[in-house]
Sequence to fold (221 residues):
Amino acid sequence: MSLLKRIRSKVLSGGYKKIAEGAPKIEGKGHLDLYWSEEMSKILETWGEKNAWHEIEYLMAPCQGRVLDIACGTGRTIMQLSVFQELEVHGCDISDYLIRKAQTKGISPDRLVVCDATEMPYQSGLFDYSFSIGSLEHFRDENCEAFIREAARVTRIGSFHQIPTSRDDIEHGWITTLQSYHNNPVSWWLPKFEKQFRKVMVLRSLWEDSQSIGRWFLCYK
Fold:
């Protein structure tokens, strides 16, 4: 049985209990190695301070219910949303190293799961809302669609995703900087979301760099 299937089996047998402690690293993860490093852990603590993290607060402020932060990293965004008492925020990430970092912030272990976002162990419709920030673009072509399909499956109302889109509106494909990612236009992403959701809106994010402009894809069931 593969590691991811073993992880899934453990989560299914214990609800969404903590499984990070002692979880082995995923063999052959290649470009994902960075997510088991202190360097990436530090980056994830600050990168969205002036843009994406404020934006998810505005998006979630009028909402209530159970929420899933997909690819939650060190749990920084979960902590930001903890001020909203109407929200019960959970998180999952493929890196047991980052999940342990999230636990040190005082996030309940029962709300953190180690898993692959393309095959999440949660039951369908468990969450009222879900979101990802700067994560989906790091999944290869076929896994992008699996990520979106899984987000739709576990979400009952709306799923919000912030990703970079190419600044020049040209399809650049899979590129590598500090992290490997897709740098493609809105027109490349939109059909993938529309395939899984009844309504999709695209909004500009304040995040940007020299190659990309951040966009929010607001997806509703």
In short: The radius of gyration is 16 Å. The chain has one domain: 3-24+31-220. The first helix runs from residue 3 to 13.
